[in-house]
Structure formats: C-alpha cells, structure tokens
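Q: what sequence does this backbone want?
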C-alpha cells in the first residue's frame, strides 16, 4: 500500500482533497489528460541493435527529477514544465535511470508518492544523424507516461512493463544539445491494468492520500528500463516475424519482413535472410521479393533449441541477418542498393501438447521452476544486468528449467537471457486480482496482451 500524507489546516486544500475522494480527480484528470491505453500501436518496436545501417545511443544514467504535489497532479502541465529545464520551475534531485524512484532516496514522501513525477535530461545529437530517421525508445515506464522532446509532445503510453517508441526526427536539433522530458504517473484505478483505487483518509491535522490494490507486491514506479535513441535509414526494416518447424534433421525458419514503405512501393524491394551458426558460418539463406517479403530458410543438420538439462547443448541460438535492398533490373547486377541491415537471434523448436504431455521438439517436458519477481533492493523494478545474471545462475544451480513472469511482463533483456540459458518462460500480462469489469478495462486488457505478444513472439524461451 502506497501512502501519501498531506497535513495542514482544514481549509481549501482539505476541501479539494475530500472532493477528490470521489475519484481523486484522477478518473478525469489522469484518464483524460494523459493516456487511454490505445495511443501506442504494435507496429515495429524491434529491439535496438547497431549494424552497418543503424546507430544506437543509450540515455541511461542520471536524470533530473521532480515530484508533483499529489493534491495538484496537473500543475506541471498547466505551468508547462516540459517547455524548459525542470530546474527552472522547481528544485530537482538526481535520479538514476533505469530504476524505480521509490527507494533511491531517504525521503518517505518520494517512496510513498501517489501521483505524477517528472524527469528530464539533455543529450547531444550529431549532425551525421540528420539524413537518418531517429527514434526514441523506452523499455518500460510505470504506469502512465508522456514524453516531450524540446518542448514538443512526441509520445504517450499506458501500461508499465512494455516498450514504446516514436520517430522524433522532426523535433531534433542536429549538432546541438536537445532536451527530453518525461511525465510519469503511478496511479492505479479500476480501469488500469492492474487495478487499484485511490482514496482519501482523514487524519489529525489533514488527510492522507492512499493508493490501494489487492495484489501482493509493491507498486514501484518510474523509468524502469533503458531509454535509447536509435537511427534507421529512410527506408528501413520495421518488423520481423519468425516461426520455426523441425522436419527430420532440417530446421525450417519461416519469416516475414515488414518494411517502412507502403505495399505498392515495397514491391520494388527484396529481403535476403541469412542464418548463421555460433561459429559465424552461413548455414541457410533465402531471398523474398514482392509486396509481401516472406519465405523460409532451411537449415540442414539443425541444432534445435532445447530447455536446460534436456540436452547437452541447450539454449542453442542462431543469428539471423536480414538485409533489405532494392531489386536489380539487370541480370548482371543481382543485388540492388542496400537500404538496411538488422540482426537478431533465433532458436529453432516446436511446441505441441496432448491430453497427457507438453512437448518440445516432440519430447515431453516437465516444468521445474518458480514464479519470480523483478523487485530488488534500492533499484525496485529497475533493470540491472548483475542481478539478472545472478538470478539465472541461481535458476540453473537449483536445477530449474522454467519460470513464470509473475505477475507482469519482464524485461526484454530477461527474455534474451532465457533464450540463451534454455529457461522456459510462462509469459504473463500485468493483470492481478481483477475486481470490477468494464468495457474500458476489457479494451485495455486486449491492448496490453497484444503488446506483450508482439514483443515476445520471436523468443523460443516463451512457451506459454
């Protein structure tokens, strides 16, 4: 239970808070002004990687941080705190990103804060990026968020635990410093995923604003995962979808490549897909042309992806190299202009089940593992590679081969670790102990699970 206390004389402030008890005003303030769960589509969102055609720059580190008054959650918007450095409006403190903000300081009012907080920092954009398209990508902000670049709103997103991004090429100043501002709201209501309630409780000399919920873990908040800038060419690979099958000793890797062009123009493109083993040897290749860039790469003597302790070479991952290029009009020029190159890891495995067994690669598997949490001391739900490494070492030490992401989507980096370590994942959306049902909540549940499936569909470790 998060508690935010406000003490003082019984005057206008108390009247405001008691009136807000009907819904803390967040039913209208937060729900209408910030997000509604449908702003971010499931288009693109490939995990950022560098290549011959792409650059990436993390904005992790120390950011400036301001806590809004819980009794006045929209003050920052009214006063346009996003229009300049936060320090121009209020004193700021340093806050690490990625991390929950709750346990970093010794200030109980920050730990138990109910409402909005603000982050900002400056970053440099090189002139060389001016000919590229530049995206900003957040791994996770809990719960609601709004993002501005140089005072211009570029992005809104609801749901913690899931990534979101926006093309910010048009608002950047190249060869100069730029400013990014993030509003983060941790309030949970009956129409959020997960649910919660905000009530006002009278106390001596004032009231306390209380966030309640029925789930059994703390409502950590903040910028929980990495913030990253990445560049792509003007014509780029927007998405890649992979499905796999085993046919004898062959691995069949079915792929679909989506470009940034519309279907009529995309007909002039082709995608070349190569599969490389761990030694870097090309073991399969295929080329797709036309408006729909899809096909299959066949790998002879394939090494399937196996769970830990089910095979001596568990967690085997191939590298998949996707090259987007223009189709050549000349037989003597088999390759046209190369637009974009993207690389990702793929594992080849099959899933099926019957009345008695769950089968991976045709073999029955018994799940041995845990329900985990991402929580840790000081960092809260902030991404930490040292802790992630320790957790996976402990899983293997105890002989586990699986865990469920109780009770929300874990980081993309956690999914990558699971792929490499051969740990099976039961992937969960952030819905716990639902109390009341509504059409709004249903639509948000649909949006949340759609974003989760879109993010994790290519991971061989995700089996449910």
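A:
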């Amino acid at each position: 239970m998060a508690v935010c206390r406000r003490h003082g004389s019984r005057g206008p402030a108390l009247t405001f808070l008691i009136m807000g008890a009907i819904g803390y005003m967040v039913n209208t303030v937060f729900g209408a002004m910030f997000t509604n769960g449908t702003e971010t589509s499931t288009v693109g969102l490939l995990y950022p990687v560098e290549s011959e055609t792409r650059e990436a720059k993390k904005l992790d580190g120390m950011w400036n941080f301001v806590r809004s008054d819980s009794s006045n959650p929209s003050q920052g918007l009214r006063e346009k705190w996003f229009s300049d450095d936060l320090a121009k409006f209020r004193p700021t403190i340093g806050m690490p990103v990625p991390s929950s903000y709750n346990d970093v300081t010794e200030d109980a009012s920050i730990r138990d804060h109910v409402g909005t907080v603000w982050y900002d920092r400056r970053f440099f954009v090189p002139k060389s990026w001016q000919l590229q398209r530049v995206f900003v990508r957040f791994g996770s902000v809990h719960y609601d968020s709004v993002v501005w670049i140089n005072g211009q709103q570029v992005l809104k997103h609801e749901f913690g635990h899931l990534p979101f991004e926006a093309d910010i090429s048009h608002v950047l100043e190249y060869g100069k410093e730029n400013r990014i501002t993030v509003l983060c709201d941790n309030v949970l209501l009956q129409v959020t995923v997960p649910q919660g309630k905000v009530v006002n409780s009278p106390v001596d000399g004032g009231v306390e604003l209380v966030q309640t919920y029925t789930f059994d873990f703390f409502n950590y908040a903040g910028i929980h995962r990495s913030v990253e800038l990445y560049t792509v060419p003007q014509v780029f690979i927007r998405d890649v979808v992979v499905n796999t099958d085993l046919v004898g000793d062959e691995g069949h890797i079915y792929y679909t490549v989506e470009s940034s062009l519309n279907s009529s123009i995309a007909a002039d493109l082709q995608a070349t897909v190569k599969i490389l083993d761990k030694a870097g040897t090309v073991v399969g290749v295929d080329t797709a042309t036309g408006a729909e860039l899809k096909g299959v790469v066949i790998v002879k003597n394939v090494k399937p992806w196996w769970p830990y302790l089910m095979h001596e070479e568990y967690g085997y991952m191939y590298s998949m190299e996707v090259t987007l290029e223009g189709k050549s009009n000349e037989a003597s020029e088999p390759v046209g202009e190369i637009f974009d190159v993207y690389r990702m890891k793929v594992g080849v495995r099959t899933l099926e089940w019957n009345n008695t067994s769950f089968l991976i690669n045709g073999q029955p598997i018994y799940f041995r593992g845990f329900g985990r949490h991402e929580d840790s001391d000081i960092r809260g739900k902030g991404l930490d590679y040292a802790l992630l490494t320790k957790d996976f070492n402990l899983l293997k030490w105890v002989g586990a081969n699986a865990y469920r992401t109780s009770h929300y989507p874990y980081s993309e980096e956690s999914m990558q670790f699971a792929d490499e370590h051969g740990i099976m994942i039961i992937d969960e959306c952030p819905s716990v102990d639902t109390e009341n049902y509504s059409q709004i909540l249903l639509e948000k549940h649909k949006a949340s699970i759609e974003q989760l499936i879109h993010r994790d569909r290519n991971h061989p470790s995700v089996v449910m």
